[in-house]
Recover the amino acids of this structure.
């Protein structure tokens, strides 16, 4: 069971690192596991040039990763060795690898930090808000994958242990589910027959039912439509064209959604909607 657990989680983490590198073009992506003694260990990586950071142990509160664990918030620095918001016990490892800018985001499952997702560049380039938001979104999707893995293991380890549960979908397959969810919602919007439209909306709900929890904020159908488009990376203009409404109307729906979910950006709104099971 432990071997399979590690394998399932490692596959989800590897898929997240690869997807993040592809989406952002950032050369280095890493994952550090939080150990029982509250230290981090970098256990997976993509794009490192040297072994300096491979399997590195990071003490509690040290560097970018340690600050992430302490604050439970994303942390980014444009010049690691000169940054004044972090400690510098591990500077030599960063210098040996040649990293300049680094950002990191916590991976939290069931309110407990499981690890830290990192991105880094070797050149003096500042990581913008878009990159941080993409790292955050990837972290949220990884959290969902790890939570699903844990749920399946609980089923397998309980009275239903003899039931075949099937394998966990990888990152690419989750993206297909999300794309299908959005397309179904857009198709439902174009139907004039109310009964058929409601049937499609039920199908949309079924796509998120396995991870649905009690919602603290009730989103309207149109607000979910807008969020579905945003989750696929559509701009306001693209979402407006897809939905057959004006771009200002899309903005209005987004403002309403962000207010209900307590989000400050469109990407935070998507993440919040996924956490409450409103989006796949």
């Amino acid at each position: 069971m432990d071997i399979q657990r590690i394998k399932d989680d490692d596959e989800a983490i590897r898929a997240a690192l690869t997807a993040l590198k592809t989406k952002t073009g950032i050369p280095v992506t890493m994952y550090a596991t939080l150990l029982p003694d509250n230290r981090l260990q970098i256990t997976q990586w993509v794009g490192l040039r040297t072994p300096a950071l491979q399997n590195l142990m990071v003490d509690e509160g040290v560097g970018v990763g340690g600050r992430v664990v302490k604050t439970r918030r994303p942390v980014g620095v444009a010049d690691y060795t000169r940054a004044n918001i972090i400690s510098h016990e591990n500077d030599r490892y960063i210098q040996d690898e040649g990293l300049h800018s680094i950002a990191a985001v916590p991976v939290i499952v069931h309110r407990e930090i499981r690890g830290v997702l990192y991105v880094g560049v070797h050149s003096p380039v500042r990581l913008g808000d878009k990159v941080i938001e993409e790292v955050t979104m990837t972290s949220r999707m990884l959290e969902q994958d790890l939570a699903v893995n844990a749920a399946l293991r609980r089923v397998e380890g309980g009275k239903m242990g003899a039931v075949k549960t099937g394998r966990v979908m990888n990152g690419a397959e989750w993206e297909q589910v999300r794309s299908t969810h959005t397309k179904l919602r857009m198709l439902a919007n174009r139907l004039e027959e109310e009964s058929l439209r409601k049937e499609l909306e039920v199908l949309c709900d079924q796509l998120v039912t396995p991870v649905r929890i009690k919602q603290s904020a009730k989103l309207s159908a149109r607000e979910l439509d807008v969020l579905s488009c945003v989750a696929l990376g559509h701009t306001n203009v693209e979402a407006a064209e897809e939905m057959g409404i004006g771009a200002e109307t899309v903005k209005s729906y987004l403002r309403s959604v962000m207010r209900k979910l307590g989000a400050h950006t469109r990407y935070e709104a998507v993440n919040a909607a996924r956490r409450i099971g409103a989006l796949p």
Notes: The domain at 171-275 is CATH 1.10.10.10 (Arc Repressor Mutant, subunit A). Confidence is low (pLDDT under 50) at residues 159-166, 210-214.
